[in-house]
Write a structure and sequence with these properties.
The chain is of the alpha+beta class. Helices cover 37% and strands 27% of the residues. The chain is built from 9 helices and 12 strands. The strands form 4 sheets. It has a 6-stranded mixed beta sheet. The longest helix has 23 residues, at 38-60.
Length: 262
């Protein structure tokens, strides 16, 4: 951890170490990232992407959904670059969500500037600029149609298919960019449980459910019930309205810029 800086979770003040401005969970992840061997960190991320998420969704055993294993372009394929980790099929509405999973082991972005840098990072954008977008743009290509049919996904077409980047970054939720939808894992798994919300009630943990159906391609439709139902809805609405009114102010040379955070 960096001492005595805005990015520290441990600070040296005099002869004492004290908690810094960054929350412990971010600091621990940063420390873990420095201690873990890159190969082990990569294996951990791959286990999350390929094994954990897929099996968790299958274990939900929800009759409304079918979970299909992922697929990717083979060497020499007519269309290269696409890579899908799993497919979530909505059986009731005949919808297909092609999902790419990204797991960041350490150095989770905390500040807005770090979040912006991550979104502009070529390695991160590869997950949706290439691996998802290539499939979306070539869904009607004959070789891909053949592959989808072989995998039991032949009913997926441009009109009923959507593309999702699933990740472990808490700040990036209910977001759409260039036709790709972004969801953090802890939120998504609760969305699939009819919008489950857990909250403290006296000394116990209570639950409520705010959704009837997960429509991942309609994020605004799903956001609204969180602000309308339950004892914490008013507080969430107030915080959200404050966020909408928030502006970032910075100077460049003799110019001053004021822009919305959104």
């Amino acid at each position: 951890a960096t001492l005595d800086s805005a990015n520290s979770f441990v600070e040296l003040r005099g002869e004492q170490y004290r908690r810094g401005s960054v929350k412990l969970k971010y600091g621990v992840k940063k420390l873990i990232g420095q201690l873990l061997h890159k190969r082990f960190a990569g294996d951990l991320g791959k286990r999350f992407e390929v094994d954990y998420v897929l099996n968790y969704l299958r274990d939900l055993d929800d009759p409304r959904y079918a979970i299909h294993a992922g697929f990717k372009a083979e060497t020499g394929a007519k269309v290269l670059g696409y890579d899908i980790d799993l497919v979530l099929q909505d059986l009731e509405e005949d919808l297909y969500y092609f999902i790419q999973v990204k797991y960041k082991v350490s150095e989770l972005p905390v500040y807005f500037s770090e979040q912006c840098r991550l979104m502009a990072n070529p390695a991160f954008r590869n997950g949706f600029d290439r691996q998802l977008a290539v499939l979306r743009e070539n869904l009607g290509e004959p070789s891909i149609r053949q592959k989808l049919t072989q995998l039991g996904l032949g009913a997926a077409h441009a009109s009923n298919s959507h593309f999702v980047l699933l990740h472990n970054l808490p700040f990036l939720n209910f977001y759409e960019l260039d036709g790709i939808y972004f969801y953090e894992w802890n939120l998504l798994r609760n969305i699939l449980r009819n919008g489950r919300v857990q909250y403290r009630k006296n000394d116990d943990i209570a639950e409520r459910y705010v959704l009837n159906k997960a429509r991942l391609h309609r994020p605004q439709e799903m956001v609204e019930p969180y602000f309308e139902d339950g004892q914490d809805a008013a507080q969430m609405e107030q915080a959200y309205q404050l966020y909408l009114r928030t502006h970032s102010v910075f100077a460049y040379d003799d110019l001053q810029f004021v822009c919305k955070v959104l």
